[in-house]
Design goal:
Elements (H helix, E strand, L loop, with lengths): L7 H19 L12 H24 L3 H28 L10 H32 L3 H29 L4
Amino acid sequence: MSEPIKYNKLIILVSILIPVVVAILFTVKLPNVEPLSFLPPIYASINALTALLLISALVAIKNKKIKLHSLLMKFAIGLSLVFLLMYVAYHMTSESTPFGGEGTIRYIYLTILFSHILLSITVIPFVLVTYVRAITNDIQAHKKIAKITFPLWLYVAVTGVIVYIMISPYY
C-alpha cells in the first residue's frame, strides 16, 4: 500500500465529519451562556490572515523556499481549525444574524454566502489530500492538486471576509 493511500479513509472520514458535526452543532444553543458576540470580527480576521498566508505560501514556493512554504501552509491549516472552533462557538451561543439588505445587494450577498458555504465544505478533502501528498513527499501529485486547492481555499477565505463585511452592519 502506498503511503498516501493509507490516509484515504481518514481523509474521507474527516471530510464528512466536519460538515456534519458543524451542521449538528448549529442546532445546539448552549443555555445560560453569554453570547460570544465578539467573535465574528476575530474569525473574519482569521479568514483574512489565512488568505494572506496562502498567497505568501504560493510566493514562497515559487521562490523555492520549501521550508517557509511548509510552515506557512501548516499555519494556514491551524488558523482554519481555530476559525472553525470560533465559528461553531459563536453559533452555539448566538442566534444567526439575518442580512438586512434588500434588492440586488441581497442577491449578491446570498450568492457569495452560498458559494462560500458550498466551497468551504468542498475544499476540506482538497486541503487534506494536498497536505498528505506533501507530507508523504509525493511532490508531483501535490503540485497537481494544489493548483485546484489553492484557488478554492483562497476563495473561501476571501469570501468569508466579504460575508462578514456585508453582514456586520446587522449584528
